[in-house]
Write a structure and sequence with these properties.
The chain has 14 helices and 16 strands. By secondary structure, the protein is of the alpha/beta class. Bound molecules: zinc ion.
Length: 380
Amino acid sequence: MYELLKKDGAAKRGRLSTVHGIIETPVFMNVGTAAAIKGAVATTDLREIGTQVELSNTYHLHVRPGDKVVKKIGGLHKFMAWDRPILTDSGGFQVFSLAGLRKIKEEGVYFNSHIDGRKIFMGPEESMQIQSNLASTIAMAFDECPSSVADREYIEKSVDRTTRWLIRCKAEMERLNRLPDTLNPQQMLFGINQGGVYEDIRIRHAKEIAALDLDGYAVGGLAVGESHEEMYRILEAVVPYLPQDKPAYLMGVGTPENILEAVDRGIDFFDCVYPSRNGRHGHVYTNHGKLNLFNAKYELDTCPIEENCQCPACRNYSRAYIRHLLKAKEMLGMRLCVLHNLYFYNQMMGEIRAAIEAGRYKEYKKEKIAGMRRSGADDL
Ligand SMILES: [Zn+2]
């Protein structure tokens, strides 16, 4: 059940109640691709850095260790020792971006595993079955992610197929949720809006999927090469056509600034690999912009990554020490950077929620972005 607590302009402050607890929105979901946050971060760490939702990838877990293995163990929550909400993606994005040689048919997609090349078929029913085996809190519908350079004609056909697939996903999820051996019979389903950079196709599709009364709605197929301005334009066009009394999720986005702008356009769920990926490369976020801890200027710097940051890295360690760890390729270096970055994102979402509640979201956004653009950041 989603409750819209407050609106400030288009910005939404919401609360989604799930079988695994409450999600306060806007929220940033922390990406744990193969049931682990890359950078040696465990679920015990996630509790300490303010993570509300962990996101795992259906495709990766289907290929390895196999969703049937996870089901036998009792589901993803038990497997990774995490009792709070988990969202699983549908596998669609990975099938379209990662897998070799694929063939798209009405029934689904035939492709080869990127691990061992074996042939796999995935369609709406298979994706729902896998996500039901994983027993995540929220499952994502299986959609096609057309190439960012696909033409209008192709996008139109693809979006129509995505709608037909969504109807099949919903029917299959309802069937699975009624089976006696389903681990999470209260699994939720979010639909995904597609349509490339064509506003009219996006809006038509949004209306079609809004009519299906799902638990939430995502905007997919953005942040795939278009400019930030183009992404914001699409959000302004399409978000008003998604149900206001349901969560709105912008998939795979993005930088802190992208998130601040998207919240201002009505989005309240996010996920992105940036904080963990950048952390693994020694690039850390601060309120004064990003730093590259490999830089020589941090050799003798005894300050934490960010003054007053309460993350496990900043409470204990200096930039000089973390720089040394990174240069020595000690795993602890990247782990500390990833913990700091995820904490930074999670903290920012808390600030966003407070600013919306106080009715000062636009001022907050302006101040936060100006701070992060201030000189003093490293050129990255
Ligand atoms: Zn920190």
